[in-house]
Amino acid sequence: MPSIDTLLAAHAPWASAERAWSLTPFELFMWLDDRPRYPLVFQVVLRFEGPVDEAAMRDAFRFALGRHPLLRASIVDDGRGVRWHAPASGWNELEVVPRESPPESGPGWIDLAEGPGLRGRIRKTATGSDVTLVFHHACCDGQGARMFIQDLALAYAVLRGVATEDAFMKLDAAQLDGRDVHACEPSVWRGLRHLLHMFRTRPLPTVPEAGLAAGPAADAAPGSRIGLCMHTFDRETVQHLQDPRRLGEASFNDVAVALLFNVLDGWQRKGGVKPGTRMRITVPVDLRGREHERMPAANRYTYLFVNRRVGVGTDWPDLLADARRQLRLPRQAAAGSDMLSMLHTFARWPRLMRRGLRWRRCFATAVLTNLSDPSRRLRKRLPVDDDGCIWLDRARCHDMQLCTPPLRPCTHWGFGLFEYANRVTVTFRYDTDTISPPAAAGVLADYVAAWRSWADEHA
After folding, report:
1. Domains and their CATH numbers in the chain
2. Count of H helices and E strands in the chain?
3. 406 DSSP 8-state letter
4. What is the mean pLDDT of the chain?
5. Which pTM does this prediction carry?
6. Which one, 93, 167, 298, 429, has the greatest CB density within 10 A?
């Protein structure tokens, strides 16, 4: 069995060298917009049944960190501006948490000026072990997290002798130098025009639940006022929802956005919002192409803003057609370039960007992110049982849980979709200052019911 140092020398030779990069405008935006009350982090939990070798998992974590430099980097000011600094040693290790320790209240907050943007821990459970990974969004997006998880799982399998080294996907850390290169070069004019458009078309946040006391507790822990609930569709229901005959020319994402607008519309009208008031759903867009397949974990996202008005054109055909029009690829490319242009423009004045991000302005009523199946590439390299669950040696990954997307000030709702083991899970993160857990559970139930109703009506 190879040692971890041998694996790093063969598959991540760049891990032995100290590296530094200037922050891209998107990374700077993510860092400056971060705050303990609304931490820009997301969490992935891999839940295993059966024995997990903790020493091997800790070595696998170290290997994966070596492959992805930005995940072991912190932000420093070297006198010429803020930069990522990835050391060649002294990396974070996978923390072994005693089973009897109290559970974490949430992903928490990561200060990138104090340490790197990835935290990992392993805890034994009654049936196996849970591996929890918390990523800061400035250094990693959903695709980057997927790549890290792939390396973690494959390294564990190699170290346990149940997989060979040719299972690793080839990476090239030199591609990180071009992580801010895009097909359409940003321009100052487009950036200013996009900013003006965003201010002129500001939406209204979700209406606070009636009678709910506003304002966080003075002693609240970072991120502790963010709630989470989720629902998982079973295999049979997923086949029903993803049936091409039901989707027709629409994508799964089109339907997800249209149904969420339907739920938002009902909540806003129930809260007394006047018809014609703007709503907006932010949809993250992956900017990777085939040429970026070997790039280690980074953030290559932008945001698309999908708009509707309360009480206007609520018939389903109109909702779906409008979502499809705003989400189609040419529009995504243009809107994504406009967003990046705005960030490139204001990255020239970081203090101005920081000050602007502290304004209490609503830029999105809700966020919807679709991460598809984070384990899809692993399925070709590791054993998979009849239920669609991946095996690592004698441990079965029976479930995967994601806590995403992050919330922002005045954006109180965040919905996530992801698939694992032929099941689709819907997560709903919400600001408990504006909606109580029982009401949030009702909103999620409405969204789930809307999916079921859509599938039944389009058989």
Report:
1. 4-178 (3.30.559.10), 188-374+402-457 (3.30.559.30)
2. 12, 15
3. P
4. 90
5. 0.94
6. 298
